[in-house]
């Protein structure tokens, strides 16, 4: 039996996610030498090289890619099983229904009246909402009964069922000095030559491919600059290093740095969805699922 710890596996998965020992140490709240020690022991115990390290980059080996894929699924199953055990520990079979909300799409205001109505119908239950960024919501999915996210983010999660709620409008974020800044709206044709600042596809799945497809009818292939988070995205936009296609909710706290223009006739359809895995739902969560199905009577997939 290999003498490896959960901490070592978690360190490997975190380094694999961020391609950085420094970032992994910050995420795990330990020192970088500690992460390095865990990875070295893990590799020595398994007898395989998992990461190729240089002064500038960290890349997964073939063995590292295999274990990252397998162990990533195990981590989600671990979190899910712990969450279900916590639910079962309630002698009444009732308690909180944990919902993960993707930041930036105003899901918190959409959930508020739904939670109020549901809790009035089921006073023995309580909605527990938690707001997450793109990378966080993937990590926390196993500990949530439901996710309020977008159809694009769920494309790589066929194990989930999804209920479509409402279409999400797109806006173009530009610097105040941009020639288009005084416009109220723009079309894809008018911005087809722009450089687009987007969240890395490692964090937000397939976003560049979707944008590329949306511009194809205009004989345009967009140029992309990738960043790791929303603040970095708007910082580049404000410095006129590109423009960004975004949701209105993301601009909160960045209003002075960018101008928002409504994006007309954009073919990419993004919807807010409620997602869940039926096999993970205990009785309290099944009541919320049925409530959502009755409320929206929408299209179910998965």
UniProtKB/TrEMBL annotation:
Q: Read off the Pfam families from this record.
A: HTH_1, LysR_substrate
Q: Which GO terms describe its molecular function?
A: DNA binding; DNA-binding transcription factor activity
Quote the protein name from its UniProt record: LysR family transcriptional regulator
- UniProt KW Transmembrane helix keyword: no
Q: Which GO terms describe its cellular component?
A: protein-DNA complex
Q: Which organism does this sequence originate in?
A: Caproicibacterium argilliputei
UniProt keyword terms in alphabetical order: DNA-binding, Transcription, Transcription regulation
Domain of life the protein comes from: Bacteria
Give the record's family classification.
Belongs to the LysR transcriptional regulatory family.
Q: Which segments constitute the HTH lysR-type domain?
A: 4-61
Is Iron tagged as a keyword?
A: no
Q: Which PROSITE patterns match?
A: HTH_LYSR
């Amino acid at each position: 039996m290999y003498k490896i710890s959960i901490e070592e596996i978690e360190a490997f998965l975190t380094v694999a996610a961020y391609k950085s020992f420094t970032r992994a140490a910050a995420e795990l709240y330990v020192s970088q030498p500690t992460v390095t020690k865990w990875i070295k022991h893990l590799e020595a115990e398994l007898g395989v090289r998992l990461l190729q390290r240089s002064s500038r980059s960290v890349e997964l080996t073939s063995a590292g890619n295999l274990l990252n894929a397998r162990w990533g699924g195990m981590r989600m199953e671990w979190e899910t099983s712990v969450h279900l055990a916590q639910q079962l520990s309630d002698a009444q079979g009732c308690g909180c229904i944990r919902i993960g909300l993707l930041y930036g799409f105003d899901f918190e205001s959409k959930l508020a009246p739904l939670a109020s109505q549901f809790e009035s119908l089921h006073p023995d239950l309580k909605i527990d909402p938690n707001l997450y960024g793109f990378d966080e919501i993937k990590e926390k999915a196993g500990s949530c009964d439901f996710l309020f996210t977008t159809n694009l983010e769920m494309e790589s999660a066929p194990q989930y069922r999804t209920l479509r709620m409402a279409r999400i409008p797109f806006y173009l974020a530009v610097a105040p000095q941009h020639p288009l800044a005084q416009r109220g709206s723009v079309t894809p044709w008018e911005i087809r030559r722009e450089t687009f600042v987007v969240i890395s596809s490692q964090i937000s799945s397939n976003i560049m491919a979707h944008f590329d497809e949306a511009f194809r009818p205009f004989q345009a292939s967009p140029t992309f600059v990738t960043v790791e988070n929303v603040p970095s995205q708007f910082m580049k936009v404000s410095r006129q290093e590109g423009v960004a296609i975004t949701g209105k909710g993301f601009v909160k706290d960045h209003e002075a740095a960018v101008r928002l223009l409504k994006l007309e006739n954009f073919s990419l359809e993004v919807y807010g969805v409620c997602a869940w895995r039926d096999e993970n739902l205990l009785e309290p969560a099944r009541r919320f699922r049925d409530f959502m199905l009755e409320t929206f009577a929408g299209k179910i997939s998965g």
